[in-house]
Amino acid sequence: MKALVVADEVEERLWTSAVHNHPADLVIGAGDLPYAYLEFLASALDVPCVFVPGNHDPDLSGYTRYGGLSMKDGFPAVWPGPAGGVNADGRIVDVGGLRFAGLGGSVRYNDGPNQWTQRQQARRARRLVRRARFRRWRDGRDVDVLLTHAPPRHCGDREDPPHRGFDCLHRTIESLRPKWLLHGHIHPHGEPVPDRVIGGTTVRNVVGHRIMELL
To answer: Which residues are the signal sequence here (predicted)?
Structure first.
């Protein structure tokens, strides 16, 4: 399973036919990218796309699918996300042969969308763990990838308020024991970004793009 993993920084050369130089089985978005960019990558490569929203992305909460239509508050509505993309935020989803658990957004620092206090994200994380356990009880499968926008606290994050990581992700990793945690949000600005390991989980900053073998 080869994935094109992207976050935060649009790479203009990928938004052209040059994307075919990066064949992949799946597109994974870790937030703060134009949804049109994700849609283009998945369409050009003719592969599925799974993503979580970042703190600069539109609010996707409240949308449902019914009979092939996108609905919000019981009425048809145009979904602002990427066409065909699977929003993993707060959900357990199976895409491209992998099981994803998703937690989008960043620490709250203003009134923008997709921002959570530490306590709010901890509640969301506990619900996510319960859903993962139910799915594992039902089919025996574990989570392969924990897909987030922000990193765990003290694991490649920063000390300025907008770029602090989430404390709750440490316990989420301990509970789900995924092979990978993939995140964006922290721009390296040309500096090397080493992987970090928590238990048996590799934590990787995917700002820009990465080609990864996930299985």
So the answer is: none
